[in-house]
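Human: I'm a chemist; would you kindly supply sequence and C-alpha cells for a protein?

Assistant:
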Amino acid sequence: MAIFKHNGADIHYTVKGEGEPIVLIHGFGLDSRIWNKQVEELSKTNKVITYDLRGFGKSSLPNGKYSHKEDLNELLKDLKIESAKIVGHSFGGEIAVEYALTYPEKVKSLVLVSPGLGGTPGDNTEWNELSRLGREGNIVGLRERMINNPMFKELRDNSETKELIEEIIQDYSGFHFTNRDPREYEDNREKIKDIDCPVTLILGEKENKAVAEKFKEELGIEAKVIPGAGHMSMLEKPEVVSEAIKEEKNREFHSETRNLI
C-alpha cells in the first residue's frame, strides 16, 4: 500500500486499474480488505481507489481533531482525481454522504451499500458493551465480541470470508472504545434531500431498513435488495455488488424496488 500524509496521519491506500475512478470506503472496525473481490473485478475497467480510514487498518490512529471526509478529499487531490464514483459500506456510506454534501462537484454518483447515516438513532446495546470492554482494557474480549457480532452471522459458513473478517478484526486496535474519538461528527438526516447526484442504495434482505426508509422519504430512492444477504453483502454476494457498482451513472435508479439475483 502507498502512504498519503494529511493532518498528522499516514493514510494507507491502493490504486489499481485505469479508467473512470471509483473510490471504495469500508465500514467501522474493518479496513479496505473487505473490498478485495470488488477491486479485482472493477479494476478491469476502472481506476479503483481503496484506503484504510484513519484509525483502522494500517492507517494512523487519531491524535487530534480530524474529519474523514477531509481525509478523502485531500487523498483525491493528491491523486489528481477531480471527480469519482464514491462507494461506501455501512459507516463508509455515512462518510460518502458527508463527502457528497460537502463536495457535490467532485462526486459523479454514490453507491451506498447498507449505509449508515449520521444522526440516525439505533440500538446501542452492542456499542455499549464494546465500550465497557474498551474501558476495562479488555481488547481480547472486545475483538472476540466484534467477531461474533450478528452482522457477520451470514459469513460463518464460508471459511474464506470468515477468516478474512477475523484477520481484519484481530488487526483492529480497539481505539474507538478505549479513547474518545475526536473526529468531526455530522447529523445529515435532514440534509440528504440536498444530494444532487445519482444514488444507488443496496441492502441485504436480512438487515434493518431504517436508513433505507429515510432515503426513500427524502430522495424517493427505492433500495435494491439482495436476496439472502445480510449486512456484509460485498463478501456474501461479491459478484452481485460488483455488478451493481458498475451500472452506468446515467441509469435511472429511483423508479422501483428490484431484487438483485
About this structure: Strands lie at 2-6, 9-16, 21-25, 47-51, 84-89, 107-113, 199-204, 224-226, 258-259. Residues 248-261 have pLDDT under 50 and may be disordered.
